[in-house]
Amino acid sequence: MMNALESASPSSERAHTTGDFAREEVALANRNSGLPLEALRYDVTPAGLHFLLTHFDVPFVTSADDWRLEIGGRVRNPLSLSCAEIRTLPEKTLRVTLECAGNGRVNVVPRWQTQPWEYGGVGTAEWTGTPLRHLLERARPQADAADVAFLGADRGFDAGCEHDYGRSLPPALAMDEDVLVAWAMNGTPLPPQNGFPLRLVVPGWYGMASVKWLRRIEVLARPFDGYQQVGNYIYRQKRDEPGVPVSTMRVKSLMVPPGIPDWYTRHRVVEAGTVEIVGRAWSGGGVPVVRVAVGVDGTWNDAALDPLQGAYAWRGWRYRWDALPGAHLLECRATDANGDTQPLESPWDAVGFGNNAVHRVPMMVR
Ligand SMILES: Nc1nc2c(c(=O)[nH]1)N[C@H]1C(S)=C(S)[C@@H](COP(=O)(O)O)O[C@H]1N2
Ligand SMILES: [Mo]
After folding, report:
1. Which residue ranges make up each domain of the chain?
2. Which residue of 4, 113, 147, 354 shows the fewest CB atoms closer than 10 Å?
3. CATH class of the region 4-245
4. Residue 207 Cα, ligand 1 centroid: separation in angstroms?
5. For residue 100, which atom of ligand 1 is closest to its CA?
């Protein structure tokens, strides 16, 4: 099996590169769509405009009726629950911005060949489900519980390693009231591509923690060692160092590119005069954004902030730009309540994780 896989895919021999995108990168970009930046205008992203990141295949699930969520491992009371049983538990709806940890990686040069996100790997949805803790309390983890693993129904290879997509959370975080086992997105059943019929939602964390098509929860007496936990989603300067696990989202902002685009280059043109620039800013771990600055040709001024939308959703901002004819560079830069600010240049990471550099939009004003 490994030989067939290796001949079909360069996945274990990929290298850093610059310049043209490989056919495999373009194919991944077509499968895993990004948020069109004009859709930053919505407080809650309409489901079809929410970004997608699916490592393997979208499981074919046509009805929630036969789905079971198994909870096992180091628990006193193993459970096998239907979606209907889960829906009898206390329900909670949270507005949550999810961003893929790889969002922005095309600006990390040289780039690692994988899903080539530019800016769009982010979206905000209203997720309805039951706090995970209600399930864990019924399963009753044993005293030696050290980690809680979440396994999806999708399976495939990465770097020659075959696995179900899976991630884990430390038990204390798994018991947080805001970690949801969700069955609805924006008030309707989850779309297939976003995890139908059940997914985990871990607010404040990069998207990889929010396991879609959730089928099994395994309480472990040792740290989970699945590929997506220990082989991927690690900040590393070099591919072969231990590194630091990716967890909560870094502070970031994006703007709706003003004016109108050219179809192929996406270069933008706007009429001279007052232009209202709008965008969104967010951070991770429930930390609010407290400032957004807008740069025009290197001169920075504060944007006005919209009210917060709860602890986990992006915050709107707006800025009135007195646009003078000619070429100009627009930038936006957010700061959160911890005092963390977006860097001016893309931070290096071997596979481009956590790139929260300022967003730059070159403009032509006529
Ligand atoms: N089962 C499963 N869950 C998954 C993934 C996956 O490939 N399989 N991708 C993860 C990643 S990397 C991200 S960024 C989010 C994306 O969620 P979305 O596609 O609903 O936007 O799902 C996460 N959950
Ligand atoms: Mo992701």
Report:
1. 4-245, 252-365
2. 4
3. alpha beta
4. 6
5. 14
